[in-house]
Design brief:
There is one protein chain. This protein is α+β, with helices and mostly antiparallel strands and about 350 residues long. It folds into 2 domains: about 65-135; about 150-340, no CATH class. About 30% of the residues lie in helices and about 15% in strands. It has helices at about 100-135, 145-155, 155-160, 165, 200-205, 205-215, 245-255, 315-340; strands at about 75, 80-85, 170-175, 185-195, 220-225, 230-240, 285-295, 295-305. The strands form 2 sheets. The protein has a 6-stranded antiparallel sheet with strand order 3-4-5-6-8-7, sandwiched between helices. Strands 1-2 form a two-stranded antiparallel ribbon. Strand 7 (about 285-295) and strand 8 form a beta hairpin. Helix 6 packs antiparallel against helix 7.
Length: about 350
């Protein structure tokens, strides 16, 4: 029998026997069995085309040559530099290169918007604080506003004060300088009565009433006094006007119409029965005058307490000065009450004070 064995120098091994039918030698490949490293049937080998694939055709989901795989660092459009490749999302099937840059841009815009809103909010807060601080500070009035407030405060006194306060029971005044220069003598006058409130048209001469009404006269308050010697009777009339400027203008206009004999447009006399003023009619007026202070114009007229008819006293300096002193002194006493200084307007600081 021939000897079989593995090949060795082209000679079979001695003593080897052929395998039984259907049995392979150890290490011998069986039919249909792949060699080591050989792909199994149906397994794709590198370089081999898939079924239905043309040469150079890319399979679905396969990266192009040189294209970064999902998650691999690649390069986007020119100018963006290296960036991470992002797989297209179902909501944005067209996303690809540059999707990361778009996301960065959106985040940057969101940051800019947040900073802008923060700045605007801070500005609004500071403006609100400044507004509250300005309201808490004491309010400052303009010169015009101060005059208006002062006129209003002064103009309401004739309604608030009792008649006996506006027209005191007794007033004091200094004698005319021409009578006794340097003398400390003080003269006085006593109140005889207070008349009811009247309009300027009723309580004054037509010329004086026209001027007062033109400047807004509201009312006329009158009272009659007699001097300390019982020689002269004085009627004073306080006209109420809406402002200090208009009161001053009315006083100037009435003074300009004054007569050459000392008697000009003035207030009507007020008589009280059983007093020295009982016979003091308009026809017995000797001297008149007008003063103003604040929102008030005070007109006065003087005559003799007895029944002497009116006689021009312009030529009698002694009588003229004495009468003028009594009338002006009484008028000043009334104005010192009605036109007393008003405290400077100020606001304590509360809104709407």
């Amino acid at each position: 029998m021939a000897e079989y064995g593995g090949a060795h120098g082209g000679q079979p091994w001695h003593g080897a026997q052929p395998p039984p039918p259907g049995q392979s030698y150890p290490g011998q490949q069986r039919p249909g069995q792949a060699y080591p490293g050989q792909p199994y049937p149906g397994q794709w080998r590198p370089g081999e085309l898939y079924p239905g694939q043309y040469p150079g055709q890319q399979r679905s989901g396969e990266a192009y040559p040189g294209q970064a795989y999902p998650g691999q660092l690649g390069y986007g459009p020119p100018g963006y530099g290296p960036q991470a490749w992002e797989s297209p999302s179902p909501a944005d099937p067209g996303a690809g290169y540059g999707a990361g840059a778009k996301a960065v841009g959106r985040r940057r815009q969101a940051r800019y918007l947040a900073v802008t809103l923060l700045v605007l909010g801070a500005l609004g807060f500071f403006v609100s604080v400044a507004g509250l601080a300005s309201q808490a500070m004491p309010r400052k009035f303009t010169a015009s506003q101060q005059r208006q407030i002062t006129d209003w405060e002064m103009g309401k006194r004739w309604r608030e004060l009792p008649a006996g306060v506006i027209f005191p029971a007794s007033v004091s005044y200094l004698p005319p300088v021409s009578l006794e220069a340097g003398s400390s003598l003080t003269l006085s006058a006593q109140r005889l009565g207070i008349a009811s409130q009247a309009s300027c048209a009723v309580a004054a001469d037509p010329t004086a009433a026209a001027v007062l009404d033109r400047d807004g006269c509201t009312a006329m308050l009158r009272a009659t006094y007699v001097d300390g010697t019982g020689s002269y009777v004085v009627t004073v009339g306080a006209a109420v006007l809406p402002g200090a400027a208009r009161a001053a203008a009315a006083a100037r206009a009435i003074t300009a119409d004054g007569g050459s004999d000392g008697l000009g447009p003035t207030v009507h006399t007020v008589r009280f029965a059983g007093t020295p003023s009982a016979g003091f009619t308009n026809g017995r007026r000797q001297v008149s005058g007008v003063l103003s202070a604040g929102t008030y114009v005070v007109l006065y007229t003087i005559g003799y307490a007895d029944s002497r008819p009116r006689e021009p006293v312009a030529g009698d300096s002694y009588a003229h000065d004495e009468m003028t002193g009594a009338g002006a002194g009484t008028a000043h006493a009334v104005l010192s009450v009605l036109a007393a200084p008003v405290p400077s307007p100020r606001c304590p600081g509360a809104p709407g004070c």
